[in-house]
C-alpha cells in the first residue's frame, strides 16, 4: 500500500519499549533498539512494521514478510524468519490491538475535522444555559441545546446535535452528524457519525376507528462508560422506563436498539442486528451480524448468537445459538448437515433418472 497520509506512521518506538507496552516478550533482547512505526499485514510488511499471526496456515505469507517484528504465540516462533524479531504472547490478537492503539492513537476515535482544539467554533450554536467544562471542543454547525452539560475533554463534531438537558461525560466523542437527545452518557464514550440516540421508540396502540395511535415515549437512554456506538446506529429512548447500554459494550454500524432494551456490560453487537423493545441482554453477550432479536425476552450472560439468526425466545446463560428460529448450536449444525445430505441424495437420484 502506498503512503497513507490519513494515518501517517508513528515517529518510532524502541522494540523493547514496544514489547512491554503490548504485554509481549521480546525473544532476542539484543534487538531491543530496533524501531517500529506502523502495523501491516504479514505478506507485505516492510522494515519498521509490526504484524501478527495466529496459526501455521499463514506460514506461506512469511516468505515475503520484511517486518521489523512479528507477534505470535510461543509455539509459532520457530517458523518466523531469522530477520524478524519475535514478540511472544499467549494473546497475540490482544497484543496487536494494543500495538495499533500505541502507533495510531488518532485512529482510535473519529478525528477532529478542524484544528481549533479545545475551542467552541463561532459557527456552532451553544445555548447560553448549556454548561461546558474545560477543554470541550464544539465544531462548526454543531448545536448544543438548553441546559445540556458536557464534560472536560469531550469533542462534539460538525453538524452534531446535543438535545436539551442531555448529560455527556468526560473524554467522549460525538462525531459528525450524530444526534443525542433524552440521554445520559458516561465517560469515554465514542458515538460515530450519523448515530441517532434517544429518538422515539416504535410504539402504537389500536385506534378506535382502525389504524394506530401513537404511544407516548417519555423514557431516557442511559449509556455507561467506555461504550462505542457505530455509524448510523439507532438507540431508541424508553417508553416509560430507560433504554440502557452497559459499560464497555461495543455496537457496530447500522444496529437498531428498540425502546426499553437493557444491554449488559462488555457485549459485542455486530452490524445490522435488530433488537426489539424490552429485551434484556446479559453481560458479555456476542451477537453476530444481521441477527434479529424478539422483544420481551431475556438473553443470559455470556451467550453467543451466530450471524443471521432469528432469536424468538429466552436463551439461558453461556449457550451458543444459531439459525432461524435460533436453537442450540449443536442442533442447528445437525439440522444443516441433514439438509445438506438430503439435497445431495436428491441430486444423485435425479442424475440417475437423467441417465
TrEMBL record:
Annotated family: Belongs to the transferase hexapeptide repeat family. LpxD subfamily.
Assembly with partners or alone: Homotrimer.
EC number: 2.3.1.191
Keywords of this entry: Acyltransferase, Lipid A biosynthesis, Lipid biosynthesis, Lipid metabolism, Repeat, Transferase
Entry-linked PROSITE patterns: HEXAPEP_TRANSFERASES
Active site: 259
Full protein name: UDP-3-O-acylglucosamine N-acyltransferase
Gene that encodes it: lpxD
Function: Catalyzes the N-acylation of UDP-3-O-acylglucosamine using 3-hydroxyacyl-ACP as the acyl donor. Is involved in the biosynthesis of lipid A, a phosphorylated glycolipid that anchors the lipopolysaccharide to the outer membrane of the cell.
Gene Ontology terms for molecular function: UDP-3-O-[(3R)-3-hydroxyacyl]-glucosamine N-acyltransferase activity
Amino acid at each position: 500500500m502506498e503512503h497513507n497520509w490519513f494515518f501517517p506512521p508513528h515517529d518510532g518506538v524502541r522494540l523493547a519499549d514496544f514489547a512491554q507496552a503490548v504485554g509481549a516478550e521480546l525473544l532476542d533482547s539484543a534487538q531491543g533498539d530496533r524501531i517500529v512505526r506502523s502495523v501491516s499485514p504479514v505478506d507485505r510488511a516492510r522494515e519498521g512494521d509490526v504484524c501478527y499471526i495466529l496459526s501455521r496456515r499463514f506460514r506461506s505469507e512469511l516468505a515475503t514478510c520484511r517486518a521489523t517484528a512479528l507477534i505470535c504465540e510461543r509455539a509459532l516462533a520457530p517458523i518466523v524468519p531469522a530477520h524478524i524479531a519475535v514478540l511472544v504472547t499467549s494473546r497475540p490478537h490482544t497484543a496487536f490491538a494494543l500495538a495499533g492503539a500505541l502507533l495510531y492513537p488518532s485512529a482510535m476515535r473519529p478525528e477532529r475535522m478542524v484544528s481549533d482544539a479545545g475551542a467552541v467554533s463561532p459557527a456552532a450554536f451553544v445555548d447560553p444555559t448549556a454548561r461546558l467544562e474545560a477543554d470541550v471542543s464544539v465544531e462548526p454547525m454543531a448545536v448544543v441545546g438548553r441546559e445540556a452539560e458536557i464534560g472536560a475533554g469531550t469533542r462534539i463534531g460538525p453538524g452534531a446535535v446535543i438535545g436539551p438537558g442531555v448529560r455527556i461525560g468526560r473524554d467522549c466523542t460525538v462525531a459528525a452528524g450524530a444526534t443525542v437527545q433524552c440521554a445520559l452518557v458516561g465517560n469515554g464514550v465514542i458515538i460515530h457519525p450519523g448515530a441517532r440516540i434517544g429518538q422515539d421508540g416504535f410504539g402504537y396502540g389500536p385506534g378506535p376507528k382502525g389504524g394506530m395511535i401513537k404511544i407516548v415515549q417519555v423514557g431516557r437512554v442511559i449509556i455507561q462508560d467506555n461504550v462505542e456506538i457505530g455509524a448510523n446506529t439507532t438507540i431508541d429512548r424508553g417508553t416509560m422506563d430507560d433504554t440502557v447500554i452497559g459499560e464497555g459494550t461495543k455496537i457496530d454500524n447500522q444496529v437498531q436498539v428498540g425502546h426499553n432494551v437493557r444491554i449488559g456490560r462488555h457485549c459485542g453487537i455486530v452490524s445490522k442486528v435488530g433488537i426489539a423493545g424490552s429485551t434484556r441482554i446479559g453481560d458479555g453477550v456476542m451477537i453476530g451480524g444481521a441477527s434479529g432479536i424478539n422483544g420481551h425476552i431475556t438473553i443470559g450472560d455470556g451467550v453467543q448468537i451466530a450471524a443471521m439468526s432469528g432469536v424468538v425466545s429466552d436463551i439461558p446463560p453461556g449457550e451458543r445459538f444459531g439459525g432461524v428460529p435460533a436453537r442450540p448450536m449443536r442442533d442447528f449444525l445437525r439440522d444443516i448437515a441433514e439438509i445438506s445430505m438430503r439435497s445431495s441424495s436428491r441430486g444423485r437420484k435425479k442424475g440417475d433418472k437423467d441417465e
